[in-house]
Amino acid sequence: xxxxxxxxxxxxxxxxxxxxxxxxxxxxxxxxxxxxxxxxxxxxxxxxxxxxxxxxxxxxxxxxxxxxxxxxxxxxxxxxxxxxxxxxxxxxxxxxxxxxxxxxxxxxxxxxxxxxxxxxxxxxxxxxxxxxxxxxxxxxxxxxxxxxxxxxxxxxxxxxxxxxxxxxxxxxxxxxxxxxxxxxxxxxxxxxxxxxxxxxxxxxxxxxxxxxxxxxxxxxxxxxxxxxxxxxxxxxxxxxxxxxxxxxxxxxxxxxxxxxxxxxxxxxxxxxxxxxxxxxxxxxxxxxxxxxxxxxxxxxxxxxxxxxxxxxxxxxxxxxxxxxxxxxxxxxxxxxxxxxxxxxxxxxxxxxxxxxxxxxxxxxxxxxxxxxxxxxxxxxxxxxxxxxxxxxxxxxxxxxxxxxxxxxxxxxxxxxxxxxxxxxxxxxxxxxxxxxxxxxxxxxxxxxxxxxxxxxxxxxxxxxxxxxxxxxxxxxxxxxxxxxxxxxxxxxxxxxxxxxxxxxxxxxxxxxxxxxxxxxxxxxxxxxxxxxxxxxxxxxxxxxxxxxxxxxxxxxxxxxxxxxx
Amino acid sequence: xxxxxxxxxxxxxxxxxxxxxxxxxxxxxxxxxxxxxxxxxxxxxxxxxxxxxxxxxxxxxxxxxxxxxxxxxxxxxxxxxxxxxxxxxxxxxxxxxxxxxxxxxxxxxxxxxxxxxxxxxxxxxxxxxxxxxxxxxxxxxxxxxxxxxxxxxxxxxxxxxxxxxxxxxxxxxxxxxxxxxxxxxxxxxxxxxxxxxxxxxxxxxxxxxxxxxxxxxxxxxxxxxxxxxxxxxxxxxxxxxxxxxxxxxxxxxxxxxxxxxxxxxxxxxxxxxxxxxxxxxxxxxxxxxxxxxxxxxxxxxxxxxxxxxxxxxxxxxxxxxxxxxxxxxxxxxxxxxxxxxxxxxxxxxxxxxxxxxxxxxxxxxxxxxxxxxxxxxxxxxxxxxxxxxxxxxxxxxxxxxxxxxxxxxxxxxxxxxxxxxxxxxxxxxxxxxxxxxxxxxxxxxxxxxxxxxxxxxxxxxxxxxxxxxxxxxxxxxxxxxxxxxxxxxxxxxxxxxxxxxxxxxxxxxxxxxxxxxxxxxxxxxxxxxxxxxxxxxxxxxxxxxxxxxxxxxxxxxxxxxxxxx
Lengths: 565, 565
Fold this sequence. Notes:
2 copies of one chain form a homodimer. By secondary structure, chain A is α+β, with helices and mostly antiparallel strands. Chain A has 22 helices and 18 strands.
């Protein structure tokens, strides 16, 4: 029997029907990424599954959305909103309320597969501009109507659940434009609902679209690039895959405008100031609990893809890869844009899934002393001016070779680039057969990295049949992040959630942050006070009371700010 | 008559007597920097002065300090402080109260020359450690005793005036140590009272002192380097002269510990997080109004002076120098450490004062089309890894040459380095003869730079007999700063203060920030609400109410937080 005759599951490739739960929870209704035969074999082996287990699917959420609870707003309230934004920008149907009431967390996915959509807004509103938002916030504040903000719905931390009903503002429908580009300041003014690809396309094409002097790039390319809004980047403190060079979302913001119940906060485009604590920075990461971002001025960067350099190495060990990465980011010869090191399990699975685990490459690697379950893959790119990118690549290579790494050329990096945004779509195929893939991520100092990696891994791997791969992909001179991908087939979702909760415990107990770039939302709120300490939480709560005395802004526990609601 | 026979004022070179006003307001009692003969000639010409005007000095503050008001604390209160820190760490004598109740602003200097020291603390306390500070703050909060914090007293914005009496905490006496160095994280934990040179010396000598793996540098070298404390860098948001590469004080802070009336804020050493608004950043720039910094973890950098590159250019015009600087900071080939461009008046005065305005250099410059009152000096350095510094210098040179600049080699930069910390001491010589030298500085976007420069200059120069030199010395891709140095002989100090106030008006009216790196204090508080807007000020006031409900932390209008007191 040839490989092609082997049984393969009938991975779904149908675009979910309109109005269904599945059309809500699928990252992108029209995009698919299926497990390869190698993935499939791995699942069967790791989870003791047989072909038969892949013949019948789990509930797929193909039903049309029907909500139990009716909208809780009065006729007068609904009419007030209509008078602000127009009838065509208000929706109260079940599907809209469910769609704009959910993010893309695993938790929401599993619930929607079971047709459970019980904490959704009463009304969906598509504001046309910031003046609409100001009028809506003022009205809601007077009426004490909760407001959730929906950027593009890609959040994975339960950040936009309507625990108290109210309205959801969909920022991506109208408020999705690049308003201007400033060549002198190298900034772009954008509306928060714009998606990454639209923003990047506008910047790349700035000479034609904005009569700009040159082409630009936004520098921010999170894995969710195709799914997330610029506002979401900032409100949940995201990091792009090239953050090691361009900075995190926190770093690329120049100035912002927020509508809050306490008034409009509009900060200035001055890059350096000594005028007291920076309110511009206080607003970042506020996850909708302080106000609504309605306009932002971002740093932009010269677009020079012709200068991009790629590198990839196989290091003999995790320690060697970590030490080399630390040297790269501390040595002051410039910085790579992408830098990513995979731990032994992630490296080995990656090789296996690409069929490299027993071929010529594997032989060559072993010959060079790069042994399975010890060797670690490193990939990266360098961006910037031509001589700079060449120099950085040269210095990176020197460090890698000194550490006993073998160059894999830029091939591995191109492979990674190919799947960087699409791999996420595989989640549905797995869930269709009861296999969970979920991720947790954390920031950590260099000093705590190994303790954290080992501490979390040892807990995760203590559960039999749990794949756990880890990489570090955002580097700072003072530390990095760790990104844990767990794949398992739990007895049921409750078992998984209990397990995941203990992994978070292990992260925090071992010196990691509760999140590096996903945010807190309601999912991680139970850990935040212990992590930050009561005194810091008291500061965030004092700001909450100031901005939102009536508790209408994303209420229901986001960021741990109003757990008693 | 030869030059050497010409009259020269008897610039003072005596160390002020102990206990005198002069020993307080002089930047450093033991350091002197006198105007050259060329400076002296310039003063006479610009201010219509004669040799006779330099034969009799203004009041020099040589009297022993005697205060009119007696300490306002009760015996019981004083004893309470003694019981916390020990008798040897408490002082109530007039001189101590005056010394630790003043910064180094021109305003304080002029007042002290007139023996006016009327807003000083009741008691001077030298805390031994952060536990002392916690106990003192708790006690003061209960007793509603105001607390001013004195780092090293180099502030120039009236940031530590005891408008309401109370105590001053002197951080530099005991809390002045490097506590540890972490090679892995490239961080140092320091106490806030340490002076720049002590910190830098410890870092340079880290292998011997801390058994560290290598030598480090702090990367932060403000003009006040020899006079300012690390805590002051952070609380007033300073910028070092190499900030273009190393970042501002804001950027080099990893984590902090503050004692506030609302409890102790201790943030974590994790460089990247998505755990809500960053309280660590909120505290920076709080100028003693929220709490007292008792410990800080700072980024440190590899010390590689052997790789330093220097450059200096003469540009044909201010526009050419500005455009080239913008290109340098936006072109993504790395960054210079020091970068500094002087406007035509500063350039010309610099040449004149060094005797270069009518010699061979001037001829050569003119021959190259670099004409007086158009040409602009640019100096700079590059730091980092060897290949990096070479590459950056090469690219800077390319840009300069394309802009029609002439290289002056690194000589001009070495000259500048020589006087970078000592030139400030010249202030006393000038004030001794009624000549005022004062500075104002502002942050600005590239887009507003010329409008701001011209707007401020045209106002300043509208006053006859006013020298005004300007440079930009802290560069960001989105803008820079402008630093205005004004030298004039006003009728009296009141005339000067009215004039300075209007210059600040002109700065803000033309799109500059109220401060780029000096801070706000009480001096610029009257402009801050208009500059930030009421909504941002309300945020800062809400934080004030949270941290300091009894209004004891640096009260009296600092940062515009409690103007009604």
